[in-house]
Amino acid sequence: MPYWRLSTFYLCYFAALGALVPFWGLYLKQLGFSAVEIGELMAIPMATKFVAPYLWGWIGDHLGRRMSIVRIGTLLTSLVFLTVFWLHGFWELGIAMALFSFFWNAVLPQFESVTLLYLNKRADRYARIRVWGSVGFIVTVLLLGVAVDDNGPAVVLPVLFAIYLSIWVSSLLISDPQTDIAGGTQPPILSILRKPPVIAFFLVCFLLQAGHGSYYTFYSIYMEDVGYSKTLIGQFWAVGVLAEVMIFLVMHRLLQRFGARGVLLASLLLAALRWTLIGNFSTSLPILLFAQLLHAATFGTFHAAAIHLVHHYFTGRHQGRGQALYSSLSFGAGGALGSLLSGYLWNSTGPAFVFGVSTAITFLAAVVAWRWVVNEL
Question: If we measure between CA atoms, which residue out of 72, 53, 76, 68 comes closest to residue 175?
């Protein structure tokens, strides 16, 4: 198994998210966009994630050439992103974001399938490779926080372009695993999607990411408005992902001991607590730091458990589309709804109310998971 090549790809991929997620909203704010417009623009990449992963997943499942899709997606992302350097209007920037995110969102679900195919029966070891993505995020968010403080949010543009190119280069070093071969007959994917545990699982993922909308869209802006520097804001993000790294190192043991369903439930309850703390204690540094440590649950343990469940729910030629549906319905549809909702509510109701809505949505997800999600079909 090409451990280091797979890990390098994750490192580069999530380094891009370390530039985009914490600082893109600040860049949009610098351009003069309102909270509603920022919410709408931030929803665009998530909306394309609703369509793109399944389309590319269908192609990957039928052609079996997932790494070719990854290479094409990363190269086109880099080329289209170049246009953002010269675009500043709402509609023109929105169109550019839609185009580069359409190709960008083709990448990760296919690469997740490649990684799991290399791991084969050792899927519980996934977190040991994925942890390098967290390392990339941490390094980027720490260094870029200082750079944004010194040079302004526009410095994000050249950094992101360089990282996108590095993702493409790293993809050239990885070939499709030999196990990625369709064999035998399988029931139609709709027969899997009709099962109540699968429906419940995707609903839970959708709701959790909808709850994250306020965090991904406005956390940096919120912290800046409270009075924290961009360097410290970058450190807040880094603390969360560092906690994620620590949990990834023991994730295989948690899955073996508590099962994916148990880990999922704990993650959801801790996520509801996190949004409550962020929304109501923004001036308390110790509480904010503790809330960021809960990122280990709201993303780390949840994502690892979800990947584990998808791997068991969808097998063979359905693997790519299963991963794509997870990405589409959670980070895509759920994230887009959360961004839009938080954008429309932010100025009229305030941060405490918006994060309270996130808490309620996440708690609903916990109820659904407790009632219907199971470890195996």
Answer: 68
- Global pTM reads 0.83
In the chain, the amino acid numbered 163 is I
Residue type, 250: V
- Dump pLDDT digits (tens) for 254-282: 988 999 999 999 999 999 999 999 999 99
* Cα separation, 306 vs 301, whole angstroms: 8
Alpha-carbon distance values, 119 to 60, 100, 135, 263, 376 (Å): 18, 30, 21, 21, 19
Q: Which of 313, 338, 336 is nearest to 325 (CA)?
A: 313
At 295-334, the pLDDT tens digits run 999 988 998 899 889 988 887 777 767 877 888 889 889 9
- CATH fold, domain 3-179+188-372, is Growth Hormone; Chain: A; (1.20.1250)
CA distances to 86, 229, 338 from 39, rounded to whole Å, are: 21, 22, 9
As a whole number of angstroms, the distance between CA 11 and CA 136 comes to 4
- Please report, for the chain, the start and end positions of each structural domain, with discontinuous segments joined by +: 3-179+188-372
